[in-house]
Design brief:
The protein has about 130 residues and is α/β, with parallel strands linked by helices. Helices cover about 40% and strands about 20% of the residues.
Length: about 130
C-alpha cells in the first residue's frame, strides 16, 4: 500500500506510541514516534509532517508548550492534542496554544481517521474541533 503521508506522535507512554504507530501504519500512513519533546522539535525542523499528535501531560514539558514551539517552526502544520486528560483543558486554551483539535485516549480508529481527514482538508480558518 502506498503511504498517504507522514504523521508524528509525541507521547511519554511507549505503549501509546506503539499503538498509534500500528494503527496509522494499517491505514496507510508512515508514523514517526518519539517520547522526547526535544527530539520532536528536531524532527519537525527536518520534516514536514501531515499531522502531529501531542500528549498534553509529559514529564519534561506540557503539550501546550510543545505545540507553541512547533507552530513557531511550522505554523501551518495541523496539530491535535492526544491525551486522556483533554477534559482538563479548556478548548480555547488549546486553540490559543496552536492545537487544531483534540482527541481522547484511548482513541478508536474512526476517531483517528476523522482527525486525519480533517488535517487533509484543513483550511486556516477551519477552527478547533474535539473528537470523541
Amino acid at each position: 500500500m502506498a503511504e498517504k503521508g507522514t504523521i508524528l506522535v509525541v507521547d511519554n507512554e511507549s505503549d501509546q506510541l506503539e499503538m498509534m504507530q500500528e494503527v496509522l501504519r494499517r491505514i496507510g500512513f508512515d508514523a514517526r514516534t518519539t517520547d522526547d519533546p526535544q527530539q520532536a522539535l528536531k524532527m519537525v525542523e527536518n520534516h514536514a509532517f501531515n499531522l502531529i499528535f501531542i500528549d498534553l501531560i509529559m514529564s519534561e514539558i506540557e503539550g501546550t508548550e510543545l505545540c507553541e514551539q512547533i507552530k513557531r517552526i511550522r505554523p501551518d502544520v495541523c496539530i491535535y492534542a492526544y491525551s486522556g486528560h483533554t477534559h482538563l483543558y479548556d478548548p480555547e486554551r488549546l486553540a490559543r496554544s496552536g492545537f487544531d483539535g483534540a482527541i481522547g485516549k484511548p482513541a478508536t480508529i474512526e476517531e483517528i481517521k476523522t482527525a486525519l481527514n480533517r488535517a487533509a482538508s484543513m483550511q486556516p480558518t477551519a477552527g478547533f474541533s474535539i473528537i470523541y
